[in-house]
Amino acid sequence: MDTGSHLLFGVTLAGLAFFHPDVAAQPHLAAAVLSVTLVGSHAPDLDSVVRIKGQDAYLKHHRGLSHSFPAWLVWSALIGGLAAWGWGFSEHLLLLCSFAFAAVALHVIFDWTNAYGVQCLLPFRREWYHLDALCLTDPFLGVVHASAAIGAIIGLWPYPQWICAGAWGLTIVYIIWRVVHHEVVVKRVRRRYRRWRAIHVLPGLWWFKWQYVVQTDTGFEMGVIDGRRLLPSRHLPFSEPHHCIEATRNVSAVRTLQDFAKREYVSWTVEPGGGYLVTWTDLRFWREKDWPYRAEVRLDDHYNVIGEQIGWYKKAWEAPYV
What we know:
The protein is an alpha+beta fold. It has 2 domains: about 5-180, no CATH class; about 195-320, no CATH class. The protein is built from 10 helices and 8 strands. The strands form 2 sheets. It has a 4-stranded antiparallel β-sheet, with helices on one face. A hairpin with a 5-residue loop joins strand 5 and strand 6 (about 275-280). InterPro entries: Transcription_regulator, YdjM-like. This is Metal-dependent hydrolase.
């Protein structure tokens, strides 16, 4: 999920702490719990510091080791321990570490629900896990948790723990429904393309809107689902081999994309001034005009690499919402 959503979830998670009598009775302890849930809700994304080494390094490590299960324990001990020391609540160390752990775990779980996914089993397995059920920013969850948080802060809800518990209960039901709905949509696409070899269905920003890519024996089929309508968009044949493609396979940006991609695709064009532009992408993240997540490699006429770059070439509010 996006940073704002993670922090919002941290606020409503802290609201659950008011079920503990000591938290309800001590405003400073409540503030300490809020501090660990806010920091813990964002902590796994501190891997963004590797941006200083470039976009290639960031995409290679983002949602990797910092999101892994061993890191949950490190984050919770570090955040809870510092909070207990800083706020002077050493007797509540276990409470603070527990809420820090919950915040970190929920961060990773929410990341798991969207299409980008997470490497939560590092260093034991490098596989990316993703449920493809929620967008990076889910409007429904944003409204639910913002209403609970704002109402609790301004005193609209006399018992903040109960409204926050209601928000989290609704969140659990909502995520289950979205996961089940995703499986229903996948089955619809399977019935439409009987000769499928692989299927990926990604959520749109609004309910009942999805986009899909299907690998068949002849190439890739892409389209959208709007309610009950399944609308094919385009057919993409398999890419033709070329020397310029082979010359880019060991380029760092290409290896980074290949380590992440589920449905990689490569295309090439001859540059107007000479040489070649080779573009690698993950077809899961397609849109009508281009592929926003891609690695681009420029070669001269002799297939020597003269430039490379990788990244997301889209605005945050543009599809796909990952």
